[in-house]
């Protein structure tokens, strides 16, 4: 299936063109949300539009005129909505709750026709024409951009432009893919991923995040601030005066800025933890259906989980660390020592294996399982790529005091 690589590049956007990129994002989101309105049917999932061709046939001309975006960007916006609608229909079919998709995250998806990459800059389409943006590249060479985007062995797939409001910076996430003559991973790519060490991250109700090294981010300050701000908001709403309304608006802006800064700080610490423990990859559990998996989690925790993953995803590559996701099923119920899985293994924030008696903090156990699941998947993939039934492909999980091997949690190497 080939090897996929993503290079994250910071852009030095000229001041006179920053508004052009912001306008592009607004119009791109308009395309996606307008398409979601047209494609979604609240009464019968069979009436939802789930084919890109049909959606484009209905919306393309109107959205081109409304937004001024190029054809490729309009198509990408429509297709983003169609994919989300298809996901919602799938949830419906499984008897799960599904709502009309809505997009509000600052991002724009570019293809090779709407983004042209040069050695030190990229040219991006906007409603007001092309914008040339120089790169801000690290001094070390080769950079991920040089290794994957400028490398002729890799094929450009797509690029996602994102904006970080906290640092007021633009980033381009450039996805590439590489094949050999048979359409398989090449030997060089396999070598790149051998002897890797991963950092598993568990997200839960009791702790905002826990790493497989035993590092905890409890989020107590986060919960305290949210509770205090909600109380202040309720008090202002009860007053009903214009002054209270104005104060409420100021509080909302302050709260949004504070939330983002708090999650940015944790994201930096997670990336730092991975770098300090020589991890090549940070692994999160997939956040799909997280509301159903964590029914007792507060809404602000769900928001924090998603933002934390997004922030780590673009911060980690700057340190040469990749970010991946794995299926979260049973990671909280599985014993990271013997592998026995049972729902009664976990009791609140404590984990005690019914089989081997292993006792540990439940979230820490989950973090190790997240890392182990990815390690096993990668080890299997690498062994298949090497086409050697007896060959090994070491992928380890970094834990407190040592390393957990992909061959099984019972093997612990002292650190």
Give the topology.
Layout: E1 3-11, H1 18-39, H2 52-67, H3 71-93, E2 107-110, E3 115-117, E4 121-126, E5 129-136, H4 144-149, E6 154-164, E7 169-178, H5 187-193, E8 196-202, E9 209-211, E10 216-217, H6 220-239, H7 242-276, E11 281-285, H8 290-293, H9 299-315, E12 322-326, E13 346-347, E14 350-352, E15 359-361, H10 362-386, E16 395-399, E17 402-404, E18 412-414
Parallel strand pairs: 8-11, 8-16, 11-12
Antiparallel strand pairs: 1-5, 1-7, 2-6, 3-4, 4-5, 6-7, 8-9, 9-10, 13-14, 14-15, 16-17, 17-18
Helix pairs in contact: 1-2, 1-3, 2-3, 6-7, 7-9
Structure description:
Helix content is 42%, strand content 22%. The protein is built from 10 helices and 18 strands. Strand 6 and strand 7 form a beta hairpin. Helix 1 (18-39) packs across helix 3 (71-93) and helix 7 (242-276) crosses helix 9 (299-315). The protein is globular, with a radius of gyration of 23 Å. Mean pLDDT is 80; it is low at 185-194, 387-392 and 407-415.
Q: Main β-sheet, in a few words?
A: 8 strands, mixed
Name the average pLDDT.
80
How many beta-strand segments? 18
Which sequence of SSEs, written as H and E, runs from N to C?
EHHHEEEEHEEHEEEHHEHHEEEEHEEE
From the N-terminal CA to the C-terminal CA, the straight-line distance is 36 Å
| Relative strand content | 15-25%
Low-confidence stretches: 185-194, 387-392, 407-415
What's the assembly state of these chains? single chain
Shape: globular
Binned, the helix content reads 40-55%
* Total helical segments: 10
